[in-house]
Design goal:
Helix content is 50%, strand content 11%. It is of the alpha/beta class. It folds into three domains: 126 residues, eRF1 domain 2 (Nucleotidyltransferase, domain 5, 2-Layer Sandwich), CATH 3.30.420; 94 residues; 127 residues, no CATH class. A five-stranded mixed beta sheet has the order 3-2-1-4-5, with helices on both faces. Helix 7 packs across helix 8, helix 9 packs across helix 12 and helix 11 runs antiparallel to helix 12.
């Protein structure tokens, strides 16, 4: 059977749909104009990113001429969100080609226990779903909101800070465990520990010197710890000044509320509130704190929250919700939480479930606060 056999859909606007299945060694490219039975599938494997992208553009132009499509035909490209992030989307849009980045989990797949899965099948499924989505079948896939290059780059400030903090704790914990193997319980959090170790004043449980190999390893750990602490201190000095002006304003506005610190406000401003939301449902869905019911026939099960979107923001909102209960006791959110949990007694599980709802409501309240200037009900601002 010929794969380029054509058919004529009545009244459809000509669209050349292109999908990419990205991998480190090669890309699969599927092209479909809606007039033939099966899409054309090709492989590009140039070693350089620019050359590989140009090969995709050459394929698009070659099939446009081969399939006798008009010069101004609408070209739409899609690929799944992943480690390549958004550079492909920006490069295509700079050339006047519409590009969509797709949430991989939103693409429907067969539910057979054993189903065939290859890059070729995936890219064909993606281009078919893209054409259906363009016709208005919105349930075929969900499109990811692409941030601006500045918004994407600014996230690295707080993410690097978190990684440095984690690295500092890992170095200290590693040294503490190494010392514990010899019965030495010296405190490694103080900077004086490195000096005492260099002077060979750190001893085992019986007063004998540390083995030379372990001592050398601890000295190297102290050097790496000092470097991480130095980088963290330098980042803290320039963190606020390095924020873009819009993000700095959002961060300052959030930090005015009791229970929200400067670091948490900066993370929210950079990770969540760079986006423009239309309603509260979009805010809750973006942070993955909305419930997912399962109601089929006689089976009615609460599956918990969706856990979609940014996991860093979700964890931050949960932590911020606990701080909100402590520092905003008169707010409507805190009173709502107390009313829901006062009858549960010491049931901690009920409190952990309720705090998720508080985090979702808090995210919506903070969005309204930044968007319309509406202070959350009963909340207090910090003194000047």
């Amino acid at each position: 059977m010929r794969t380029d056999q054509t058919f004529t859909p009545g009244g459809e606007e000509p669209v050349l749909a292109v999908s990419l299945e990205l991998a480190a060694a090669k890309w699969k490219v599927a092209l479909h104009d809606g007039r033939r039975e099966k899409p054309a599938v090709h492989t590009v494997a140039q070693p350089q990113a620019a050359a590989r992208l140009q090969a995709v553009l050459d394929l698009i132009e070659a099939h446009r001429g081969k399939w006798l499509l008009p010069a101004g035909v609408r070209i739409v490209v899609s690929y799944e969100a992943g480690q390549d992030a958004f550079w492909i989307c920006r490069a295509l849009q700079a050339r006047g080609i519409k590009c969509y980045v797709v949430d991989p989990a939103s693409i429907p797949v067969e539910r057979h226990r054993r189903r065939a899965k290859t890059d070729r099948l995936d890219v064909i499924s993606l281009v078919i779903n893209l054409r259906a989505w363009l016709r208005g079948e919105q349930d075929r896939m969900h499109v990811v909101h692409v941030p601006s290059p500045q918004d994407e780059a600014s996230r690295q400030l707080m993410r690097d800070r978190g990684e440095l903090q984690k690295e500092v704790l890992q170095h200290r914990d590693r040294m503490r465990k190494l010392l514990a193997t010899l019965g030495c319980w010296d405190e490694v959090d103080h900077k004086a520990f490195a000096g005492r170790l260099a002077r060979d004043e750190v001893r085992c449980h019986d007063g004998t010197p540390l083995p030379p190999e372990l001592r050398e390893r601890l000295l190297r750990e102290c050097e790496r710890l000092a470097l991480a602490e130095q980088q963290l201190a330098a980042l803290e000095k320039t963190r606020q000044a390095s924020l873009p002006a819009p993000a700095r304003k959002r961060s300052d506005d959030l930090a005015r509320l009791k229970g929200i610190g400067e670091v948490g406000a900066s993370r929210l401003a950079l990770e969540l509130f760079w986006r423009e939301f239309s309603n509260r449902r979009q805010v809750g869905a973006c942070v993955g704190l909305v419930p997912q019911p399962y109601d089929s026939g006689q089976s009615q099960v609460d599956q918990g929250i969706s856990k979609q979107g940014n996991g860093r923001v979700r964890a931050l909102l949960i932590e911020m919700a606990w701080c909100w209960l402590r520092h905003q006791p008169g707010s409507a959110l805190t009173q709502w939480f107390n009313q829901r949990t006062q009858s549960t007694g010491p049931n901690r599980r009920a409190r952990r479930i309720a705090i998720v709802a508080v985090a979702r409501r808090l995210a919506i309240a903070l969005w309204r606060y930044l968007k319309d200037g509406v202070i959350p009900e009963g909340a207090q601002l910090k003194s000047a």
